[in-house]
Amino acid sequence: MNAPTSLTELGSDLGTLRFGSGQTMRRIEDPTLLRGEGRFTDDLVMTGQAFAAFVRSPHAHARVLGIDATEALALPGVWAVHTGAELVAAGVKPLGFPPSFKRPDGSTATAPPRRALAHEVVRYVGEAVALVVASSPDLARRAADRVAVDWEPLPVVADLEAALADGAPLVWPDSPGNVLAEARHGDAAATAAAFAAAAHVVELVLENQRLAPTALEPRSVNAWMDGERLVLRMSSQMPAGVRGSIATCVPGRTAENVRVTVGDVGGGFGMKTGAYPEDIALAWAALQAGRPVKWQAERVEEFTSAVHGRGQTSRAALALDANGRVLGLRIHTHSNAGGCPGPSAAAIPMIIGPWVSTSIYDIRPVDIRVTAVMTHNAPPGAYRGAGRPEAIYIIERLMDAAARRLGLDAAEVRRRNMVRPEQMPYVNAMAQRYDCGAFEKIMDQGLALADWAGFEARRAESAKRGRLRGRGIATFLEWTGGNALAESVRVDITADGDVELTSATMPMGQGIATSYVQLAVDVFGLPPERIRVVQGDTDRATGFGSAGSRSLFTGGAAVRVASEKTLDEARRLAAEALEAAAVDLEYAAGRFAVAGTDLGITLAAIAAKQTGSRLVVSGDATAGGPSWPNGCHVAEVEIDPDTGTVELVAYHSVNDIGRVVSPQIVQGQVEGGAVQGIGQALSEAVVYDRDSGQLLSASLMDYALPRVDGFRGFVTRFDESVPCQTNLLGAKGVGELGTIGATPAAVNAVVDALARQGHGEAAEQLQMPLTSEKVWRALRR
Known about the structure:
By secondary structure, the protein is of the alpha+beta class. The strands form seven sheets. A seven-stranded mixed beta sheet has the order 3-5-1-12-9-10-11, with helices on both faces. It has a five-stranded mixed beta sheet with strand order 7-15-14-13-8, sandwiched between helices. Strand 13 and strand 14 (326-338) form a beta hairpin. The relative contact order is 0.12.
């Protein structure tokens, strides 16, 4: 930045220094939320508002023989009861399953139709079969209880073992053996040879249990007709994607006559990335009702019918030479695809997870086989990390097991296998290209931050208090971007001189609007209150949305490009208005001035001269590839040997996310993500009854979210010395990094504590979540 030449320019520079990228500023999203002025979907009540409730299956597998809505329709104020048969007859299409996945024999995989309302057969508890529309939410729920469904219960396979058993009942007749699809990666023959030549082989059976995303705000939809257009207000991460699904599934709807808007979103975590059957049903109901129809999910509906995350069992092995160098990696995984799988039920375990299976390590060859298996469970989908947490958990557990087998320090075995900076750009065994990375450097900083060398003293102090202390490390990377690498932003300069940024990326509590404002401050030199962000309206922007930690390095890059283009265009217009050469103009704090004179013109005045009294410019940015954020996370735990209770007593991390735009926000992202990863490690699990397929963890009394009393705080640092090479900001995704590293770090710490007490074999057989009962039993084997 050149030295300021006037008080005006000095003020512009000071504003950028205080509020621009790289600076900590208060989140612009928070004041309205803290005042209770947020506008969530359920806050919108329109004139003539109707309310919806779903009739859901109490069976994991049953045939629908008939539905009698007579008693429900007799209630005053109940306006309609829609059924699956009605929607099928009207031509409402199911949500699709792509033809790109293959069965083990090479034939194209197919899945049961995922209908707005199930027709003929239900395949999991909670699948909707009818929709009631009434004058109040309570009346709609009461009427739903009076809809009589004639069920014929059918045999159930509620877990992977049951589904894969010989002669097991089929979830879907077109999937023999309940195998939905299968993918194989790598070189099986070369991997077998590596294992045959290995000095050491470590093998583990590892479960990544099912999880419920549990966003603070459950799903919510309000649908109505605006003339000939169908409008939906909903809680979504991808409004344009939902619009596309409705245009595909609902007769008479197109992208042009459907509008999706989104207000505040109380958390997404991946579970709100696409259309649900309920969204299609609400759209249809609004078309029939001629009035707005709203549905607000109850928490039990989120547990039973929203997508779950994870849900895999893997047999994984490393082949190593005598010095601890990995010679080969073999992973055979069965993933639970549920009863009515969507595309992500196959893509996440079969494609995305394998992409990062070797993580930061230089490992070849690999043999990876993933089999997606259908069960009578709810469909899985994206949940914070989506495939990467599962893959990183596997390789990090194997690295710790290898260290114990060889008698090496856990950090040392990792060091011996890391990809080196001089190998960049590096192409891993799954043909994924890492543009940059200094993994050993990040690990060394993490070890120093956590005082790795001083652990024995802390362990001795814990022992004096009767506690068992263990430490766990995870050195890892993740893939971000969702392979949706292009984004567009529109900039409006208004006649009052304000800047308006319109983007298709979505806020969901992560603070992305604040980061966009800071990037715009860099360019315009205006105070943050003069810049506002518009999101969540498919009439304004129709990009990919927010998922896969892509919003900043794609959307933020577009903010930068669009802002610079806008300022260039404003400079051209200013030169015309001032009858001066553009190169003779100086810009500061929203005003152009002719150098050495008092002649000038403001952005507001320039905008006022344009059509509509606005200067409008759009800008696009396309990343050259995904980003690969990485980190070193170190956890320490204490275990009460009398009860098996685990307490996380220290958590240190050093993270490489490239350029940091909003320091406070990225710290919150990493630490909040880590809490969710620790939840998987120690407490959370979706549990179905093995015989009936009933969901046993369908409330917050039964599903154990992590609690604040289990933590003693985080120490989080960032290294900005390795900027991403694939986008102009140099930024890497951050939203899922903490979740991915925390799970293996916490589990490795528990296993380490038990192994130091002579229970290594029992500890390595433990499966998440590592509850006090499991740990207590391991101590007594």
